[in-house]
Each structure stands twice: as C-alpha cells, then as structure tokens.
Write a structure and sequence with these properties.
325 residues; alpha+beta; binds biotin
C-alpha cells in the first residue's frame, strides 16, 4: 500500500486529492492518511493542504535493497546486496559474512561507527550523506594480483564521479579519487588467503557524495561532489552506476589476469603523470617524476638522470611536492 501511494505521488506533478488516491486504491481516507504519516516518518517530505490534497516534495535518500534495485533491476549477477542502517565497518561486516555470502556481494551502510581508512586511519562515516560499501569477491587469481583490483575499482570510481560531477576526476595513485585537487573517495582493499590461495578479496569504498562539512584536520584535503557542484546525489543510483562500471572492468581483468588492457585508461586519470612526487618509504623520502603505471599497477617513476624504476602499493606512499596531490 505504502509503495502504491508513493508511486501515485511520484507520478503526480501537482497536488493530488486524498479522494483521488482513495478511489485509485479502493481504500478509505483514513487508511491513506495513516500511510502518508508512515511515509513522512520514513523521511518523505509530503505537503498536505486542505481541499488540495497531497504533494510529494522530496524522497529520502535511502540505502535499501529496494531502492538500490530500482537502479539495478537485474541485481548483481551472482551476488547479493546486504544493507545496514549502521555497522562498525562494511569491510568488517563483509569479512564476518565471507563464510556464506556469495561471490560479488555488496555490503552497504547508511553509517559506519568504526570506518577504516588505509594505514590504520579512521574513515569518518556520518549518517545519511555519503556512501560506504564493500565488495566481497572470490577471484581465481594469485594473491599477489589482488592489489590490482584496487586500481580496477579506482577507474570505475573515477568514471562514475565524472558522470555525476560533470567534471573530469583524477586518480592519485594508487586509489584516491580527486576532484578540484581534493579527495572525494578512498578505497581500502583487504584479502583473506589460505595456503597461497585467495579465500576472498574485500574492496571497501568510501565516497564523499553529499557531506558539506569536514573535520578540521582533513578540510584542506577532502571534499564531496555536492560541495563542489552544489547538487545532491542519490546514493542508491550512484552505487548502482559504480557496480555496473566495476563489474564491466572486473570481467576483463579476470580474463586478462592483469591491468594491461587498462594502462591507458588508468594513466588518463592519473593526476601524478609527468609531475614530481615525493616517494615516502621506510628507507626515507625521494623526489621522482611519475610516468604512469605498468600492467601490474605499479607506479613507474624516473630520477633526474632518466633512470626508471617501479614502486608498488603498500611499499610507498606518494605525495605531491606541495601538499596532498
Ligand atoms: C582510504 O584511507 O583512503 C580508504 C578509505 C576506505 C573507506 C571505506 S568506507 C567503506 C569501507 N569500510 C571501511 O571501514 N572502509 C572502507
């Protein structure tokens, strides 16, 4: 009943009378009124004016299977969608569920209470604004290839971010997505392996979509798509688009076994190309020119004498000479 009322309100550009809704659904006015109140409690903004009826002003930005399904009618082939109002971390939830959840499942939450970033950092994940999700994958690839999947996810993320911001979004190697020189998305990949075989790979993605305020320590480095464009993004639609872009590339990656088909695409997004970067490793810091990635997703760098070497994710962190990018 609730859904039918919502569909009627959505298809009515102006007010629709309570009487009209009653006769379309064959129910009493009291029943309609009761369901309108439930919808308001769920976050729908519905204007009611006597002698005019009801008008839908705003739908809530829900993270539910039903809502995501609207934008992904065929679901994720093989996978499941698990939605939570609040979890500690979707990566942790995916790990806990790895025993039964099918390959290619996605775990998405409205809020994380202990969101994890890379290098042991916290990923602040407030309710209702941004997108926090993890993909559970069981690819038949050697464990040393798993980190390449992070770059596959980064390309899908950059593509979708570009579509919604209508601006080109860059990748800061290996997997930060950047808009106007500030980070809008981070990716944390974790792996479970036994006897040299992958049990699962979890790709956790945090997208700053609608948040307008950032904590003092990250405000100079982070932004959201809405903060940059002024437009609110429907999270379920964005997630569905990401999943479609990711799965397309994931199939190609599984077929090829490495990133060779993607080097050009990845490098076209890479913010560091041709620029001097600070390579920070356990051995210290060195300045090099970034050239692009190779088929394994390693960053190719060059010293002042033109000598080339590669660095891999986990080994180093890359910084711009004058700040984050
Ligand atoms: C980074 O530090 O850039 C990576 C951030 C990854 C955050 C996402 S949010 C969804 C998933 N669950 C987590 O706890 N972390 C990842």
């Amino acid at each position: 009943m609730k859904n039918r009322i919502i569909n009627i309100l959505k298809s009515s550009p102006d007010f629709i009378s309570g009487q009209e809704i009653c006769s379309r659904l064959g129910v009493s006015r009291t029943a309609v009124w009761k369901h309108i109140n439930i919808l308001k409690e769920e976050g729908y903004v519905i204007e009611s004016v006597s002698r005019k009826g009801y008008r839908l002003l705003q739908s809530p930005d829900l993270i539910t299977r039903e809502e995501i399904g609207k934008y992904l009618p065929d679901g994720i082939p093989g996978g499941e969608i698990y939605c939570y109002d609040s979890v500690d971390s979707t990566n942790e939830e995916a790990k806990r569920s790895a025993g039964y959840a099918p390959d290619r499942s996605v775990f998405v939450a409205n809020q994380q209470t202990a969101g994890k970033g890379r290098r042991g950092r916290t990923w602040i994940s407030p309710k209702g604004e941004d997108l926090f999700f993890s993909l559970l994958l069981r690819p038949d690839i050697p464990p040393e290839s798993a980190s390449m999947l992070t770059l596959v996810a980064a390309m899908a993320a950059a593509e979708v971010a570009k579509r919604y911001s209508r601006e080109s979004c860059q990748i800061k190697w290996p997997n930060d997505i950047v808009l106007h020189n500030r980070k809008i998305c981070g990716i944390l990949t974790e792996m479970g392996a036994e006897m040299g075989e992958i049990s699962y790979v979890i790709i956790g993605v945090g997208f700053n979509l609608n948040r307008m305020e950032f904590e003092e320590d990250i405000v100079s480095m982070a932004t959201s798509i809405r903060k940059e464009t002024g437009e609110r993004i429907t999270r379920a639609a964005f997630l569905a688009d990401f999943l479609a872009e990711f799965m397309k590339r994931f199939e190609i990656f599984l077929r090829e076994g490495d990133l060779s088909p993607f080097v050009k695409e990845y490098d076209s997004h890479l913010i560091n190309v041709g620029k001097e970067v600070k390579i920070v490793s356990r051995q210290g810091t060195r300045i090099r020119t970034a050239l692009g990635i190779n088929e394994k997703g390693e960053l190719r760098i060059q010293d002042e004498l033109g000598r080339e070497e590669t660095v891999f994710t986990g080994e180093v962190s890359v910084r711009g000479l004058y700040g984050y990018v």
